[in-house]
Amino acid sequence: MFGRLMPTEGKFFDLFNQHADLCVKGSKEMLALMTNFDDLENRVHAIEGVEKQADAVTYNTIELLHKTFITPLDRDDIHKLITRMDDILDLLEDAGQTISLYDIREVTPEAKRLAELCVACTEKVKVAVGMLHNMNNSRDILTVCEEIDRLESDADHVMRAAMSKLFRDEPDVRTLIKLKAIYELLETVTDRCEDVANIIEGIVVENA
């Protein structure tokens, strides 16, 4: 039954893939921003543009969900998956805007490392989402989800070390507050990627 429904509403998987592509694009823009602050405002603007594109994909997915009588996945799973994916780009946009508003002029190695882990997580999300249309991929999908979990754990470790160093070594309270906010936003991006992985794992268990 599940396999027969796939061709009928494959549009959902196309939309998931479009959104996953945008998640990767947004995270790479964030890493580029963290690598070179010389083009800060243009990078922030680029992230905002990607987020708006992702909002449109999310809207189209939910609109299609309301119009579709028989869906290839559980309706609640479709809604949770696309909204959690959208959270990823919302947080990346928040991080970019916060860097701009706080007038941060240089990046720490820890912030750059968190941005790198955001890219790695979103790339794995893209891989997992790209295989979701075919439950014959279930074993590979679960393996990728485990990799996302490991990357999120890596981000936790980086975050804890960054916070320890920040509170130990940063004498300026304003700088401390600014960097703490950036660390938290970037680490939360990896949390949302893990949420997406958990949703995908649940879909696989239900449908494989």
TrEMBL record:
SUPFAM superfamilies: PhoU-like. It holds the Pfam family PhoU_div. InterPro entries: PhoU-like_sf, Put_Phosphate_transp_reg, UPF0111_domain. Belongs to the UPF0111 family. This is Phosphate transport regulator. It comes from Undibacterium squillarum.
